[in-house]
Amino acid sequence: MKSGTPSWSPRVEREKIRRLYLNDASGLLDSDLIQDVGERLFWRCRSILSVCETAEGRIPCPACEATIERSKDAKDQTIRCGQCGWSIRWGDYQKSYRHQELYARGMALAAHTFIKQWPLKVTPREKMGLIDRLIHVWHWENSRVHAIGRPAAVNLIEGSRRQVLQLLDRLSGRGSTVAEGGI
Fold this sequence. Notes:
Layout: H1 14-25, H2 31-55, E1 58-60, E2 67-69, E3 78-80, E4 87-89, H3 90-97, H4 108-117, H5 124-141, H6 161-171
Antiparallel strand pairs: 1-2, 3-4
Helix pairs in contact: 2-4, 2-5, 4-5
């Protein structure tokens, strides 16, 4: 019988996001960097959606991707996949995503859209556009003016709330501009 703690995709480094946008602003499309950031966002979005499903009582099995239905919230309950036999204690499963910035129910639609569209994008320009839409949808929906609490972009990009907002403000021109060297 398989068991073990699931692993989650990490947030994307701020420096990679910064370089991606500096390159784009200077007219350079670094296809390797675009592919790297896009893949990281793809896997991060999958992790976010898995945790969101878990909160609804449907746990995606990390071994075979079957859905495990969970009916109670007892930390000592063992959850087990009926397809492959993978199992873990519910409390340990919860600990695996705690403090990982993975629960982001409000961005589930944007994450799902990104996951669906990423494999369809062929050119670096198409991929950059998709990355940009994902990051800016979350930024504008969670700007300082409108947000109550934590901005959703913190679930995607590493750093504190302040650091991520500062980066996104600069990228969007609300802080120092790229030409001023402010990013």
